[in-house]
Structures are given as structure tokens and as C-alpha cells.
Design brief:
The protein has helices at residues 2-19, 23-61, and strands at residues 66-71, 77-82, 88-91, 109-114, 120-125, 132-133. With 155 residues, the chain is an alpha+beta fold. It starts with a helix and ends in a 22-residue tail after the last strand.
């Protein structure tokens, strides 16, 4: 009786093992891996662009001026040269996908502007609207160089 039960159990296990199809699971994993890679690439590009913006702000504060703007040979952006600092490279983004209503996606444009207090603050421009100050959670403008920067020998 035990042998008969074991044989039936073994046959049932073999039949069920042949019925399992993990193709969809493998497809989903591959899709997620592709999406993670795309996000990692975007983060690398965004960090590079933020670093370039910080270099521009530092150049403005140190009275370092732009001496030239040259397009990259591959047409993907520009190299900006300064009187004192090393050149920086700014690259174009990629065209976005269509929005859920079928219109073009609109990416915000991050920039900097000099305010009446003599400090540079981050701005954001969306679509054709004018740039507005980027604000922190308390509604204060965000300085590009932080709040406790040294100016000469003074704090």
C-alpha cells in the first residue's frame, strides 16, 4: 500500500511540475531590470547636470565669466569655457514620451537667478510659464550655495 501511494504521489508531482510556466515571471523580471537600469542612467545624468549648475553658480559668485560656448562634436550638448575655472559640459536630455492625454511631456527646467539680496537662488520653469523661485517645505527660497556660506572673512 505504501509503494502504491508513493508511486501515485511521484506521478502527480511529475505531472504538476510539467504544468508550471514561469515565462511571464521571467519577462516581468527582465522588464523591471531594464527599468532600474534606465533610472540609474537618468540619476547619473541628473547628478552631472546638477554639478554643472553648481559650477556655474560658483563661477558667478567668484566673478568668473564665460569666455566661450562650443557645441560638442556629436551634437549632444555644449562645452562652456570660463576665464578662471575649468570648462564644463552640458548635455541635452532625451525627448520625453507622450503624456497620458497624448500631448508632449513637459519637463521642468531648473535654473538660478540673482535676487535683490545679492544671493543666487534655485528657480524652476515649467512649460512657457516664467521661472519661479524653488521653495523649501517652509516656503523659503533655496540658496544655491547653502545658508551658512563664508563671504570673504565674514560669515
Amino acid at each position: 500500500m505504501k509503494i502504491k501511494s508513493f508511486v501515485l504521489f511521484a506521478l502527480a508531482t511529475m505531472l504538476c511540475a510539467g504544468c508550471y510556466d514561469d515565462t511571464q515571471l521571467k519577462t516581468d523580471i527582465a522588464d523591471l531590470q531594464g527599468r532600474v537600469t534606465a533610472i540609474e542612467n537618468w540619476c547619473t545624468t541628473a547628478n552631472s547636470q546638477i554639478s554643472a549648475l553648481q559650477s556655474l553658480v560658483q563661477a558667478l559668485e567668484e566673478k568668473d565669466y564665460v569666455t566661450g560656448v562650443a557645441p560638442l562634436a556629436d551634437g549632444t550638448g555644449y562645452t562652456i569655457s570660463f576665464t578662471k575655472s575649468k570648462p564644463i559640459t552640458i548635455k541635452h536630455g532625451e525627448k520625453g514620451d507622450k503624456g497620458d492625454k497624448g500631448d508632449d511631456a513637459i519637463a521642468p527646467v531648473i535654473g538660478v537667478a540673482l535676487d535683490t539680496d545679492g544671493n543666487y537662488y534655485w528657480t524652476v520653469k515649467i512649460g512657457a510659464a516664467d521661472p519661479v523661485w524653488m521653495l523649501d517645505k517652509d516656503g523659503n527660497k533655496i540658496r544655491t550655495t547653502g545658508d551658512n556660506q563664508y563671504v570673504g572673512d565674514k560669515r
